[in-house]
Amino acid sequence: MQQRTASSGGSSTFTISTNQQHGNVDGAIRIGFGKHNGKTFEEVAGYRTKSAPAASTCQNAASDGKTYNFRMEIGSNGSLKLTTGDWLPRELWRALSFETPLLRPVDNNPGEYVVNEALMPNTSRAKIIDKVIAEAKKLPGVAVVEPIPQFVLSVLSSNPTPTETIPIPEAIDAIQPPLKPYQRAGVEFALQRRGRCLLGDEMGLGKTLQALAVALAYRTEWPVLVICPPSLKFVWKDQILEWLKGHVRGDHIQVIMKGKDTIQSDAKFVIVGYPLMNNPKFQTRPNGSNFQVVICDECHAIKDSKAQRTKAVIPVIQRANRAILISGTPALNRAAELYNILYCLLKDFPSESKFHNRYCIKEQQHIGKGRVVNKWVGAKNKEELYSLLTSTIMIRRLKKDVLKELPEKNRIKVPLDITDSKAQKVLAEVQQAQKTMRELSKESLMNGSGQRSEGFLEVWRKTGEAKIGAVKDYLDYLLDNDCKMLVFAHHRSMLDKLEEKVDGILQVKGSSAGKNYGLIRIDGQTPQTKRPELVKKFQEDEDIRVAVLSITACSEGLTLTAASVVVFAELYWVPGTIEQAEARVHRIGQTKSCVDIHYLIARGSPDEAVYACLKRKKEDTSAILNGEVETLKAHDSPVRFGGAKRMRPITDLYEAAEAAVEEVSETIPPAAKRSAASIDG
Q1: Phi, psi angles (nearest 5°) of residue 92
Q2: What is the share, in percent, of the chain residues with pLDDT greater than 90?
Q3: Exposure of 536 by Cβ count < 10 A (0-12 exposed, 13-18 middle, 19+ buried)?
Q4: The whole model's pTM is what?
Q5: Which residues, at least 6 apart from 582, have a Cβ–Cβ distance to it below 8 Å?
Q6: What class, spelled out in words, does domain 170-402 have in CATH?
Q7: Distance, CA of 133 to CA of 156 (rounded, Å)
Q8: Domain 409-422+468-650 part of CATH 3.40.50.2300
Q9: pLDDT value at residue 486
Q10: CB atoms < 10 A from the CB of 318, how many?
Q11: C-alpha 111: how far from chain center
C-alpha cells in the first residue's frame, strides 16, 4: 500500500507502508523530497516526481567524488543526533537510513538521524558517540563527523536532571491566593535543583511569586538579597509584602537607595539595584558573610561579561547556596547572552570561548588599518543549547500553554505614508545622514569610532520625527473606540511629541463626550517612587485613556492590564524588549477578550529594516529558549495612514539602515551610547 501527499514550495512527502524492517526502522517510513539547484533528487529507488532526475543521475551524484560533512549534536528532547546540512545522494541516504542499525531517520527531515541508544545499554554517551562516528565513516562519501564537545557531555553528566520529588513546605501551601498548578511545578523544579535555577517563564506568568515561594522554602538561610533593575525595587517590596504577609513586615524589607546606605542587621530582604551592586558593601551581609539566598531579577542584565555590574553580580550568585535567576527573555538577541547565566548556576561550566564556538556564529568586523575583530552573533546548534538549558537549570512555560484563558496576541503591521509638508525638510536631513552612513559603511572608513552607529541613531530619531503626523492620525483613529492603550516610543523627542499630540486628541474627544480624558507618561526620568502612583492611576481611573511609555524604561515590572491595545510608535531592535513591552498588558489579570498590538512602520524607512531584524532575531531566540522556531506573526493592516498624497520614497535608505541595525543591535560603541543616552526616553 502506498500513499502520496504533496506540499507547497516545490517539495513532496511520501508515506510508504511496509512490513519490512531495515535496521531499527519499521512501519510507516516518511521520506522527504527536496530541491537542490533546481532539481529534485530521487531519495528512494522507484519513487520519484516528474522533475526527478534519472537513476543514472543519482548514481553519478554518489560517485562524483563529493564528500559530505556530518556533526553529532543533542536534540531538543535530549536525544543524540547525527545531522548534515548537505543534500545527500540516494545511495548514502539509503545506507544511513536503512543499513545502519544505530541510526533512525527523522520524519520529514532528510539528513537528520536519531541515535538508537537502546542498542547500547549501560554504555556511556561518549562511547556511543565514538561508535556512531566510526560506523558513519565507513560509508562512502562521509568525510568528517564532528563530535559533541567534551564540555557539553561533562556539564550534562555533572548536572544530571533530578528525579527525586521534593515536598512543598506547608508555608508555601499557605500562600493566598494559592499558587496556580504551573507555578507549583516551577517551585518544585527549583527545589529539586536545591534552589539554584533559572525561572524563564514568558512574561506575565508570575515568576516573582514563584521566586518568593522558593525563597520561603529556605527561610532558615535568610536574609534574602534581591538584585533587580532600579525601577523595580519598590515593585519587589510591594510583592514581598503581598505574598509573604505573616512572614515579613514592612520594616524587615530594606530598599537600598544610595551608596551611602548600610545594610540593616535585622533586614530579612535587602533590595539592591544593579548599579549599586558595584559597591562591595552590598555584596555581603553586615557581618561580612555571604548572602545564602539570592534572587536576581531580569538576569539578562548580566549578559555582558565586560560590564562592571556583571563582574560584581556573578561572584555573589556563585557564593550563594540558593540562587533564583528570573527572566522572561534570558536571550534578548543572540545565544551568546546566555553564557553568564549558565556560568553562574552550573559547576564546572566551560570557558566563554568554548561556548561561543559551539553555539554562536563568528562574524568578522573590519575596523580599519587592517584590524579585524570577531563578533559572536546569532545562534547555531540551537536544539542542543535548548536541551542543555532545560535539562540543567531552566524551566520555561509559555502563556499559550498554561493560561488558556488569556487572549491571543493580535499583532498588526500598520503601514504609514508620510505626507506632512514639514516632514519633507526632516526627510531631507535623513537622506543627507544616509549618505554619510553609506560612506562610513565602506570598510576603509570603519575605524571603530562608532560614527556609523551614531549616524544610524540620528537617522532613526529623525525618522520618528518625520512620521509623527501619521502616528497622530492613527492614534486618533484608535481612540474613537472605547479602549485604553499603551503607546511606546524610544527617543525622548518622540515621547515629547506623542504626549503633546495625544493630549490634544484626548481633550477634543473628552469635550465631545463630556469627559475629562487624560494620560500618564513614564520614561527614564520618571522618579522610581512616582511610578506605582502613575500605574495605579492608569489601572483604576477609567478616564485615563493612554499611557505614553519609553520602550527601554517601561518594558519591565509594570502591570497595565487595564489596557488591551499596545501601539509601537517606534520600534526597537531587540525582540526580547519588544515582547517585554507587550507583556505589560498580556499577563495575569488581563480580562479583555483580545489584545491588539500595532507596529507603526513608515514605508521605505529604516522602520522596515528594524522590523526585518526583529523577525530574524526572534527566530533564533525562540529556537534556543522555546525549543521551536517562532516569528512575530504580525499581519498587514488593510488600512493605510498618512494621507493620499505620497511623499517621495526614501527606499535608498533601506540598505544602509539594515546593515547598521545589525551592527548597532549587537554592540554600540561607548561614543554612541553617550549619544543615545542624551536622546533616549
Answers
A1: -70, -40
A2: 44
A3: exposed
A4: 0.72
A5: 203, 409, 566, 595, 597
A6: alpha beta
A7: 20
A8: no
A9: 97
A10: 15
A11: 28
